[in-house]
Amino acid sequence: MRTNLPVSSIEYELREDVTIVSKTDTKGIITYVNADFIEASGYSEKELMGQPHNLVRHPDMPEEAFTDLWQTLNQGKPWTGVVKNRRKNGDHYWVVANVAPIFESGSLTGYLSVRSKPSRSLIEAHAAVYRLFKEKCQGNLIVKEGCAVKYGLLQKLNVFERLDIRTRLMVVVGFMAVMMLAIGVMGVTSMRNTMDAADATFDESTTPLINVLKVSDLIKSSNILLMDGMLGRDAAAIKQNLDEYAKNSTKIELLMADIEKAAQSDAAKAAVAEYSAAYRAVVKEGYGLEVEALRAGNIKEAQSLDAGPTARLDEQFKQAADKLSDYYTSRLHEMDGAAEERFAYEWKLLMAVILAGILWALATAIPVISLMVRSLRAACVNLGEIAQGRYFNKIDVHSDDEVGKLMYAMKAMQIRMGFEVTNAKTVANEALRIKMALDSVSSSVTVSDDHNQVIYFNEAMRKQVRLMQAEMQKRFPTFAEDQLIGQKVGAFFEDESMRTAYAAPLDVARTFDITMGGRDMRLQPSPIYDSKRTYLGRVTQWTDRTTERAIESEIADIIASAAAGDFTSRVKETGKDGFFLKLAQDMNRLLETSEVGLSEVVRVLGALAQGDLTETISGDYHGTFGRLKDDSNATVAQLTEIISRIKEAAETINTASKEIASGNTDLSQRTEEQASSLEETASSMEQLTSTV
User: What digits encode the pLDDT tens for the residues 399-410?
Assistant: First the structure.
């Protein structure tokens, strides 16, 4: 036996509403746990899954309890007991454990356990008993199906109680059969006489009387069919009535043959002959002529026959039928009187013998019946508790007979239902959370079943339906928020190919763009499968792209204008909200920034073109426009500095040019003076030469 340590003396007390649920395979390996189990045990789901269930076994639990548990489960029976479990940190908690085997297609597939909080008195009582077992002081106590019971000599010798009800009843009935043999012989003889008399009565009077009544009913039905044909209905209806009349006539002929065959006495034959003659007359001279008239389309002739000859013959037939009925009725009374006298004598004799048998039967059957009644009453009480939603009742099983098996089955059913209900509540809570989440999202969503019929739509879809309803109802009157559930979405498509595509089972997620009610809609259905890949339906997200498409077109025009150099266009902000309003505002801000920035650049460049270097960009810009601003202003500054330097250089050159020009003038004067001197010198030289 597994011993989980360490342990503490601290009890973790469960809440009243806690239902601990787990499932294991046939070897006791955990395959499922619910949130309450995780909370109570202190382990995480990952730590519990795939582990043996005795992971939470407490060392204070006696080995006999778990031996009894597995012996009971191996017999295919459910087990209920109070169990002390260990938490991960060593603390403990008490539960009333209900364990049952799980059978699928007749084969054992695992075990499920549903546990609840026990009362304090139950905890104290079981803690004391378990302590006795741990200390080996239990005496003649044993653990049987979760309960500590005494098992002494009396229990060993009481063989009759260990018999099943079938065996007990066979013993009682077998003894009764011997006693009742004489009663049976007497009864059979009396019954044989009575049955012979009854058969004679039935064959001679009852059967013919019943046939006479059947014939009368068929005659009335035929008369009604003919009268209905005389009302001037169309030929097809008259033909149908005449066909029914022919069927009735066939049935009447068979009954008449039986009536004539049953007539044995001369009086009966005479009455039947009169009755048969009246019938033949009314059919041949009455109804038969009416049928011929109707087949010929002569309704007035048929009406005349019905009011005249047919009515008279029909009355004669009724009188003959009444006379024959009276005859058979009187014969029944005569035979019944004789049978009653004979039966009275045989009855008195038989009752005396039967009374003796009943007294013995009561003396032997009452104990068995009492046991069955007590068990069935207990079963009714437990079923009533289950019907009221209480799945943790203590179902005591005191025998292993058929009633005991019923109680075991009820116990297993209670455990299974407790598990299923708890699991269903968990699933329902999860589904409710999902529904509430879907109702809270802004996207329109519908869910359809495997027949493509809408079973749910969220609040956003309700608003979308209201938005489209007026226009859609012009073509589809049932398109309304209060009529959408149960309808097929494909029925609201005008395009036949779309209807066909949407009506087929969905295998992969798809996207459809379609116009509905004057709005551009995008439908994105996705298939829903269960764990076995069984198709359950689809979930569809509806997106109204009307505003989106309009904005796409509007923005495309603006971008085209901007690409052509026109930044004056703006996105209209009226009629937009949410994302599209923010997009319009941001787009307009971008256009405005671009327009202002580029206008500033154009202004500065224009000034530069005019030779004005005083213009700069002064706006507050960031990013590319900030760099453009800085570079433009830097360009203006650089040009201003360059022009200033050129101006200074030009002024310097101008001054130097003036000085050079002045020097040149002075040099020219000196040159002229030197030239003059040279001329004078040359003249003097010539004179000197001449002199020489």
Answer: 666 776 777 777
